[in-house]
UniProtKB/TrEMBL annotation:
<dbReference type="Pfam" id="PF00534">
    <property type="entry name" value="Glycos_transf_1"/>
</dbReference>
<dbReference type="InterPro" id="IPR028098">
    <property type="entry name" value="Glyco_trans_4-like_N"/>
</dbReference>
<protein>
    <submittedName>
        <fullName>Glycosyl transferase, putative, gt4C</fullName>
        <ecNumber>2.4.1.-</ecNumber>
    </submittedName>
</protein>
<feature type="domain" description="Glycosyltransferase subfamily 4-like N-terminal">
    <location>
        <begin position="16"/>
        <end position="211"/>
    </location>
</feature>
<dbReference type="GO" id="GO:0016757">
    <property type="term" value="F:glycosyltransferase activity"/>
</dbReference>
<dbReference type="Pfam" id="PF13439">
    <property type="entry name" value="Glyco_transf_4"/>
</dbReference>
<dbReference type="GO" id="GO:1901135">
    <property type="term" value="P:carbohydrate derivative metabolic process"/>
</dbReference>
<dbReference type="InterPro" id="IPR001296">
    <property type="entry name" value="Glyco_trans_1"/>
</dbReference>
<keyword id="KW-0808">Transferase</keyword>
<keyword id="KW-0328">Glycosyltransferase</keyword>
<feature type="domain" description="Glycosyl transferase family 1">
    <location>
        <begin position="222"/>
        <end position="380"/>
    </location>
</feature>
Length: 407
């Protein structure tokens, strides 16, 4: 089978979980006998050849231009019969074209594939709620309140300059392109149900978890007999949705004696790209905690560095304040045998079983997070129990086989 994977970014230039998941699928299919896969990733124009919307990295990997923003999701390159896009499709002539996201690329590509290759199957992996929600696809109001269902009238509360009709028309516009999709993939049951409620037929959307690389077991951090399992690791983007500020507030609320019992390592970047208010909040909370030694800013990391980073922590924390779908860091923590503390909503609550391989914490509740950090360092046998309950996540090879088997 000839298979093409389109991604909204290439892991070489963009390290997001969705980009890595798409690339893992590409690798996995190519490692299965009798199958070939090509990878096409959107990138910024300065990386492409001057004047061309398409460039080859090698025989199986291509870069494509595009800037379909979150508001309109409209393709910005030519997609007609004589376009470079159509020529690439005809050159490869795939049996399947799989879009691992459509932001940056544009919804029109779904139709363009069907027009150019009518017998080719089109698959789409859904990563957030962008089709449902105009507020960064997070189903969270601009005031931080979580949305439990789609409603054009409720959407107006986030965008008062628009009308319910505007959101209704956006919905119909997106669904008109989704009619070109033969099958949707959701990495979580939670996200699948949200899209079914929105209008996707339940028979057209399947759950397949994103595949992970294959790793040998990572031993627990070596500790002396008098030491505790007290090092917590945050891995990911530093932005208002990921909950780093909740953790910092949680630790700040502890007594000085309690703070001496724990260490939070923050492995991440991009704080400088956030709003000034958020940057100031994070810096205000973190400065005294750094001086006390309660937190360590470790910085950004490359995927190949993750094993060494996780070797130095006992727990992985995912304090996101929005629903999430299937955070890559949860699978990565399980890959490296680290128990998890996660917010008790959405894909996080689905992927981590409370009391088995991790613990749930009330979302956004700094006091609850502080209490849980202390519990994890003081309760005898808790880490060992949760460590034993961890199962390896699906590998990228198994993930690729599952994708092929559903066709």
């Amino acid at each position: 089978m000839k298979y093409m994977v389109f991604s909204h970014g290439h892991p070489t230039f963009s390290k997001g979980g969705a980009e890595i998941a798409a690339y893992n699928l590409f690798k996995g299919i190519n490692e299965l006998p009798g199958h070939e896969c090509w990878f096409v990733a959107r990138c910024t124009d300065n990386i492409l050849h001057l004047g061309s919307p398409l460039a080859a990295i090698n025989e199986k990997e291509f870069l494509i231009s595009g800037n379909a923003d979150l508001t309109h999701l409209t393709s910005t390159i030519r997609l007609g019969d004589n376009s470079e896009f159509a020529e690439l499709l005809r050159y490869i002539n795939p049996d399947v074209v799989h879009f691992h996201h459509y932001i940056n690329l544009g919804l029109e590509m779904l139709y363009a594939v069907k027009r150019t290759l009518p017998n080719t199957k089109v698959l789409v992996t859904l990563h957030e709620f962008i089709a449902i929600c105009s507020n960064n696809g997070q189903m969270q109001k601009t005031n931080g309140t979580l949305c439990h269902t789609y409603s054009p009238r409720e959407c107006m509360q986030c965008f008062p300059n628009k009308t319910p009709e505007d959101f209704f028309l956006r919905e119909q516009y997106i669904k008109s392109f989704f009619r070109n999709v033969d099958l949707f993939i959701s990495p979580s049951e939670f996200l699948r149900k949200r899209y079914i409620e929105w209008g996707i037929d339940e028979n057209r959307i399947k759950v397949i978890e994103n595949g992970q690389r294959i790793e040998t077991d990572l031993p627990p951090r070596e500790i002396r007999s008098e030491e505790k399992r007290n090092i917590f690791g945050f891995f990911g983007q530093i932005n208002p949705f990921k909950g780093v500020d909740v953790l910092l507030q949680a630790i700040s609320n502890l007594t000085s004696k309690q703070r001496r019992k724990i260490v939070l390592e923050i492995h991440g970047a991009n704080l400088e790209y956030q709003t000034q208010d958020f940057q100031k909040k994070v810096k205000r909370l973190s400065k005294p905690l750094e001086e006390e030694g309660a937190i360590r800013w470790v910085g950004s990391y490359q995927p190949h560095e993750l094993r060494d980073r996780m070797a130095n922590v006992d727990w992985v924390v995912v304090p996101s304040i929005w629903w999430e779908n299937s955070p890559m860091v949860i699978q990565e923590a399980m890959l490296f045998n680290r128990p998890l503390l996660v917010s008790n909503i959405g894909g996080m609550a689905e992927k981590v079983t409370h009391g088995v391989n991790g613990l749930h914490v009330p979302v956004g509740n700094a006091n609850a997070w502080g209490n849980m950090l202390i519990r994890c360092t003081e309760e005898p046998g808790l880490w060992e129990t949760l460590h034993k309950g961890i199962s390896k996540p699906i590998s990228y090879i198994e993930c690729a086989k599952t994708h092929l088997n559903i066709l």
